[in-house]
Design a protein that fits this description.
CATH class of the largest domain: Alpha Beta
Strand order of the largest sheet: 5-4-1-6-7
Low-confidence stretches: 400-413
Number of strands: 13
CATH topology of the largest domain: Nucleotidyltransferase, domain 5
Largest sheet: 5 strands, mixed
Order of helices and strands: HHEEEEEHHEHEHHHHHHEEEHHEEEHHHH
CATH superfamily of the largest domain: Ribonuclease H-like superfamily/Ribonuclease H
Structural class: alpha+beta
Number of helices: 17
CATH architecture of the largest domain: 2-Layer Sandwich
Shape: globular
Helix content: 25-40%
């Protein structure tokens, strides 16, 4: 029988943490999907639940473990994007991470309050991910077609094909092992340690902590496989002797954001567009409906931001651009998709199956009243309030679309030079030019008038 000193590190990890973690840590990374020869040649993306508890921003009470979606450049090991949320993985978190991955990050770091440089931007050539349904949806497929990105899925059961992102997730979790509120890697590691009692960081504070670690520690430290820091490998791959050059920056940031929102296909009806029992309408829809034989034969692409579903975005088949379509009833209050789902769940619990728009907003109003009048705030309520606050914050971080000025296409008139006009001043009059008048002749003569009696 082998003693503890005779076991290899891989065998020790397998016995302590399981076969999967040992395989992810010690087995060589399979490169069947291709070799990354330059920055952004291959980017891997994946989700994981962080091993730390967070508290809400008001009462500082524990609300659970957040999720993180991370994208990494395989060539340099630079992290290209990172999105943290209390919500489970979804197409929304994939879109937020990809949008952040492609765009510049200076403004994002300023909003979070992190000092440092994160000089990563640009469209990836290949996007590599697992077979999760949030990756295989229509949103990722249409994004890849529109932005010329090659999508590759690793086969089921071959986690080592995504070894770069798996090891990065392990690195981030190791960093969090020393943070108050950590859950470590399982119950065996924490023994009598209660992470909920020791949790101290809010989601915002955890986000700032991780972003600072990525920008100022992980990117700057020597990587064991690269034998240099990721930032040095990235810069050499772009600006070195065999560098590929700086990647192009996305100019139409609004289109990129909309292309990465969850989508559905709908036909325009007389009452507009209906999505999850809510009606949307605008004048442009009526024009498409009038010409339905030409433009409304097939279902059209419609997108929405889960953080605010008061407006959806229709890809106009004529304009070849997205147009906003608001609530048909514009007096409705803006709500998030999660609030919408909670309202529907409340109706279902009451045995109401025939759901319509009015019932949804009535149930939503009752839910809000319950939260406001609740004497004891439960963990789930605190978590939902924190989710709502974060969704509004995440929505505000999306780059605003620059206003485009319409150029005047009329040709400017040519100004012709006009010769100066010579003005002649008349000579002063002579004395002979004046006429003498007799003052008596100028005195008016009155005739007497007889009054008739």
């Amino acid at each position: 029988m082998l003693t503890g000193n005779m076991l290899s590190d891989e065998e020790k990890t397998r016995k302590r943490r399981g076969r999967k973690q040992a395989k992810d840590k010690y087995k060589e990374i399979n490169a069947q999907y291709g070799e990354a020869t330059s920055p952004l040649a291959i980017v891997q993306i994946d989700h994981t639940q962080l091993n730390v508890m967070v508290v809400d921003s008001e009462d500082r009470e524990c609300i659970g473990r957040p999720w993180i979606t991370v994208a990494i450049d395989v060539f340099s090991r630079m992290i290209t994007g990172m999105f943290i949320s209390l919500d489970p993985p979804s197409a929304d978190s994939v879109g937020m991470c990809l949008c952040q991955s492609i765009l510049e990050k200076d403004a994002l770091l300023r909003k979070i309050g992190v000092e440092g440089s994160w000089p990563v931007w640009g469209r990836m050539n290949t996007l590599h991910m697992d077979n999760g349904k949030d990756f295989r949806g229509e949103m990722v497929r249409i994004f890849a077609e529109e932005w010329s990105v090659d999508v590759q899925f690793r086969p089921p059961g071959f986690a080592e094909w995504g070894g770069h992102i798996e090891r990065l997730n392990g690195t981030l979790k190791t960093e969090l092992d020393s943070v108050k509120g950590t859950t470590f890697r399982g119950p065996k590691d924490r023994v009598e340690y209660d992470p909920e009692e020791h949790a101290v960081m809010t989601l915002d504070e955890l986000e700032k902590y991780l972003f600072n670690h990525v920008v100022n520690v992980y990117h700057q430290e020597r990587h064991s496989q690269l034998e240099c820091p990721p930032i040095a490998k990235w810069q050499d791959g772009l600006l070195g002797d065999k560098g590929s050059g700086l990647p192009d920056k996305v100019e139409d940031t609004e289109k990129l954001r909309l292309d990465l929102l969850p989508m559905i296909k709908r036909k325009i009806r007389r009452d507009g567009i209906v999505w999850d029992h809510i009606h949307y309408s605008c004048p442009e829809l009526r024009l498409l409906l009038i010409n339905k034989d030409k433009f409304n034969k097939e279902k059209l692409i419609v997108r929405r931001d889960p953080r605010d579903i008061s407006t959806i975005y229709l890809y106009h088949p004529v304009l070849k651009a997205y147009i906003p379509v608001p609530y048909r009833d514009t007096f409705r209050q803006p709500i998030s998709l999660w609030e919408h789902r909670e309202a529907r769940a409340r109706l279902k619990s009451q045995g109401i199956t025939a759901v319509n728009e009015d019932l949804i907003f009535q149930a939503l109003a009752r839910n809000q009243q319950l939260v406001e009048t609740s004497e004891k705030t439960t963990k789930n309520v605190r978590k939902n309030k924190e989710r709502a606050r974060r969704r509004k914050q995440d929505a505000s971080r999306v780059p605003a679309t620059p206003k485009k000025t319409v150029e005047n296409r009329l040709p400017k008139p040519e100004l012709k030079s006009v010769p100066p006009v010579e003005v002649k001043v008349p000579d002063p009059p002579d004395e002979d030019d004046f006429i003498d008048f007799d003052e008596e002749e100028l005195t008016p003569q009155y005739m007497p008038v007889r009054r008739i009696q």
